[in-house]
Amino acid sequence: MRLAVDANVLLSALIGGKEARVLSHPAITEVLTTEPTLAEVQEYAGLLAKKRRLPEDLVLLAAASLPISVVPRERYSASLPEARKRIAERDPDDVELLALAIRMKLPVWSNDNDFEDAGVTWYTTAELLRLLAGQ
Q1: How far apart are CA 37 and CA 99, in angstroms?
Q2: Helix, strand, coil proportions of the chain in percent (round to 5)?
Q3: pTM (2 d.p.)
């Protein structure tokens, strides 16, 4: 299964959330994201480390080691206008990830309800864990 992944999922995986189980599941063959999503993860990783009283350098190293691929904007930019129409009012930060999902025909993995009515398949971590348990 290929997925377009949101920042909230990756941040949770960094601190050992259930998202790490999904990322390491053999049925998950490719996890893709955008540069702005990765930048958001890097921005909040340090804050998350402080909040959780974890060594910041280890959390940043874990962020750099996430099993994800960053897709260049040129590969999904044609879908940006459609993505803006669908989600910009709810969360402009999610436009690029939605454009990636639309262009590459990927389901979105996010624990953010903004994708609920975005016109793409959307999974929360809990839904993916149930789905993967059945395989």
Answers
A1: 12
A2: 60, 10, 30
A3: 0.93
